[in-house]
Design brief:
single chain, mainly beta, Immunoglobulin-like, 2 domains, 6-stranded antiparallel β-sheet, 5-stranded antiparallel β-sheet, about 0% helix, elongated, FN3_dom, FN3_sf, NFASC protein
């Protein structure tokens, strides 16, 4: 093809998807059969400082003679660049002008790990690591825990912890029970994926 799509417009739908519209090329510039419109895009940077990102180019195909489409599976809270082409049986035509757009914050992935240590019957020490994909500015952690003993469960306690906190010490109220811990990171959008761990059963002395 000899011409590129023009008037490429981007509307952000959510933290991981955008809607695209463009002006189609004249069919006499295609020099063959129009196969598809194609959007090339790559993550240029994260909006979080010092977070390394892969700038690998990806593309989404929109088969046929159309003028709109959706790009999804983007990373939240990032700067993206995008170019469009039209293709025929021989390959890509020239690229449109490069468009830049940011994606808004999303919810975080789960914390990388949650380690549980029981130095004695009175306390349980928790330690965790930040999420691999914060997807925004971490505003804190939510820790929910409840004791259980066989089929009996106690009431759930909720702790709201600060964003840089990675440790918590629980004073046990019941040395016989095990505890179930559910830990999530938060951004201003909401709570992310949960990491669930249970305290080990106490060994017989």
């Amino acid at each position: 093809p000899k011409a590129a799509p023009t008037d490429v417009r981007i509307r952000v739908l959510n933290s991981t998807a955008i809607a695209l519209t463009w002006t189609r090329v004249h069919l006499d510039t295609i020099q063959g059969q129009l196969k598809e419109y194609r959007a090339y895009f790559w993550r240029d940077s994260s909006l979080l400082k010092n977070l390394w990102v892969s700038k690998k180019r990806q593309f989404v195909s929109f088969p046929g003679d159309r003028n709109r489409g959706t790009v999804s599976r983007l990373f939240p809270y990032s700067n993206y660049k995008l170019e469009m082409v039209v293709t025929n049986g021989r390959g890509d035509g020239p690229r449109s002008e490069t468009k830049e757009f940011p994606t808004p914050e999303g919810v975080p992935s789960s914390p990388r790990y949650l380690r549980i240590r029981q130095p004695n019957l009175e306390i349980i020490n928790l330690e965790w690591d930040h999420p691999e994909h914060p997807n925004g500015i971490i505003t804190g952690y939510t820790l929910r825990y409840q004791p259980f003993n066989g089929t009996r469960t106690g009431r759930t306690v909720v702790e709201h912890l600060s964003p840089n906190q990675t440790r918590f010490t629980l004073q046990r109220s019941d040395p016989i029970s095990r505890y179930r811990f559910v830990l999530r990171a938060r951004t201003q959008v909401g709570e992310g994926e949960a990491l669930v761990e249970e305290s080990p059963a106490l060994l017989d002395e």
